[in-house]
Design brief:
With about 100 residues, this protein is an all-alpha fold. It has one domain. The chain is built from four helices and no strands. It has helices at about 5-30, 35-55, 60-65, 65-95.
């Protein structure tokens, strides 16, 4: 790799690190907000997931063929949780984020 390619690679890595570090900082701040805790962590991740999971075994859910819909809701919950985990993992390994806010 020549110097220009190496410099470009470093700039790209720096931009990517800033991006993930910034998202991680925002997520950490959101997680401290009682409204976020109640709405996302409580109602969405916990309450909705428990409700949808319990409905999977319901005779009426099975008879009406609605299990697929419930599973898709659980997948959506899982994807958001996975995104938050990705933000934490990639943001935590990035250098400290310092924005010019």
């Amino acid at each position: 790799m020549n110097n220009l390619e190496n410099e470009n690679e470093e700039q790209i890595q720096s931009i990517e690190n800033d991006y993930w570090a910034g998202l991680n900082k925002d997520l950490v701040e959101l997680e401290q907000d009682p409204r976020f805790q109640r709405l996302v962590l409580g109602a969405y991740f916990k309450d909705l997931a428990i409700n949808q999971t319990s409905m999977l075994a319901s005779d009426s859910t099975i008879a009406e063929g609605k299990r697929g819909m419930l599973i898709e809701t659980l997948v959506a919950i899982s994807r958001l949780q996975d995104f938050f985990i990705t933000v934490k993992n990639l943001g935590a390994t990035a250098p400290d984020y310092e924005s010019e806010e």
